[in-house]
């Protein structure tokens, strides 16, 4: 019996089907790297790369990298507002 690997988009969460418009994206030495497709290759390690379901989501990750230096999603404005309120109240007390 063959083992099937499920690949999920790290931006929207959709599972990969048969269509091959997927990209692999990773950061290495503070640089953004991408490759069309999700086939195994020598670098980077699996835990350091992200898969995305198309060029639009590859661009989303590139924008995150340019804005924040990371591929991780930015904190929401609600979280930032809550954090600033906490800091303000600590200053006042």
Q: Domain count, please report it.
A: 1
State the secondary-structure class.
alpha+beta
Stretches with pLDDT under 50, minimum 5 residues = 77-93
Strand order of the largest sheet: 2-1-3
Residues in β-strands, percent: 15-25%
Rounded to an integer, what's the Rg over CA atoms? 18 Å
Count helical runs: 2
For the secondary structure, the number of strands is 3
Envelope shape: globular
Order of helices and strands: EEEHH
- Span from first to last CA? 65 Å
Report on the structure:
The chain has one domain (23-92). β1 and β2 form a beta hairpin. It contains 2 helices and 3 strands. A 3-stranded antiparallel beta sheet has the order 2-1-3, covered by helices on one side. The model is unreliable at 77-93 (pLDDT under 50). It is 32% helix and 17% strand. With 93 residues, it is an alpha+beta fold.
């Amino acid at each position: 019996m063959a083992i099937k690997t499920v690949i999920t988009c790290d931006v929207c969460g959709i599972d990969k089907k048969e269509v091959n418009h997927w990209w692999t994206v990773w950061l290495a030495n503070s640089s953004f790297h991408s490759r069309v497709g999700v086939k195994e290759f020598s670098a980077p390690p699996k835990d350091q790369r992200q898969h995305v379901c198309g060029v639009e989501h590859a661009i989303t990750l590139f924008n995150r990298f340019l804005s924040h230096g990371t591929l991780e999603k930015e904190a929401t404005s609600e979280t930032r507002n809550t954090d600033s309120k906490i800091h303000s109240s600590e200053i006042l007390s």
